[in-house]
Amino acid sequence: MDKNIQISNCDHVQLEGQAFYDERRYFLFSPLDPAPHQVPRVRRMAGVAQQMTDGTFDFVAKPRRKSQAMLIKKLAHGRVSRTKDGDVQLWLKVGTDENINISQAIATEAQAAAEAIQQYQLRK
Fold first, then answer.
1. Label partner for 49 (CA 20 to 30 A): which of 4, 21, 112, 123?
2. Helix (H) or strand (E) holding 107
């Protein structure tokens, strides 16, 4: 095993390398000995990053919360679901660049959602 990598039983990986940080808050880390599959690939859009005055850097990713809603019907521009608390939720999002009549699309999909909810209630 490479001496730059220390793996313990808590899935902790420590790599030696160089870090770059600038006034635009751009951060880059490059290991001294890059090799594929040393660590699992991770991409997170949210978390807490800290750089201390001594130069140490820490990032803790926020875990992604999986939806707890149950899908009733997928629609062209959204979905209708039963939420965790038992309520019914209709979610629609129509892009303004789609060159369609947005109000008509919402009305059509809301009608399809209402029919799906009716079928869902009959199954219960």
1. 4
2. helix 102-123
pTM tops 0.70, yes or no: no
Angle value at C-alpha 47, between 45 and 48, nearest 5 degrees: 140
Distance CA 81, CA 72 (A): 5
The Cα–Cα gap between 119 and 88 comes to 13
2, pLDDT greater than 70: no
pLDDT per residue over 7-16, tens digit each? 444 567 778 8
- Residues constituting the chain: 124
How would DSSP label each residue in 27-81? EEEEESS--TTSS-----S-EEEEE-TTS-EEEEEPPPPPP-PEEEEEETTEEEE
The whole-angstrom separation of Cα 122 and Cα 124 is: 6
